[in-house]
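Amino Acid Chain and Its Fold in Token Form
===========================================
Scope: a single protein chain, as residues and as a discrete description of its fold.
Amino acid sequence: labelled as such and written in the usual single-letter residue code.
Position: the record begins directly beneath this header, with no further notes in between.
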Amino acid sequence: MLRRNPRGDYPVVHETAFVDPTAVLCGNVIVNEHVFIGPYAVIRADEVDADGHMEPIVIGANSNIQDGVVIHSKDGAAVTIGQHSSIAHRSIVHGPCIVGSRVFLGFNSVLFNCRVGDNAVVRHNCVVDGHDIPDNFYLPSATVVTGATDLTALETVPESAQQFSESVMHTNVSLAQAYRRIQNEF
């Protein structure tokens, strides 16, 4: 479902993207080409700052927002998901937040007030709150990163994790194309 926010902004979805009919996109949301947005995802850009300003939530080309993901932002801050990135089932991305390109965010993970660099892998059930994650970085499952966390003890992305991330991204780009072909059959 696509709908306006109280300010009157309406989502812009590229014609090659697929948005599942159960997903909700509200307001100042931009979905680029070949994006897959899965069942029950919610992407909501409806809050403004004290001056009535709102930055968009942007989903980069060839990315996928999987089942039950929530993307929102406080006080109109920007949220950007880069190209070729995978936001896995039931994750939360809450702005202000920037997720780079070719990022994998695992199941049930939470991002808030952070930047996740290009080619990073954030495995399942991680929390990143107020701390940037560098390019090519790897967070093992259930890692909690706050402003006080020292990242020097953590490693760069292992090849196996990078291959898994690429596989998920390619699978979901294919799903976007396949679901667009059959969307009128629902």
Notes: The chain has one domain: 2-185.
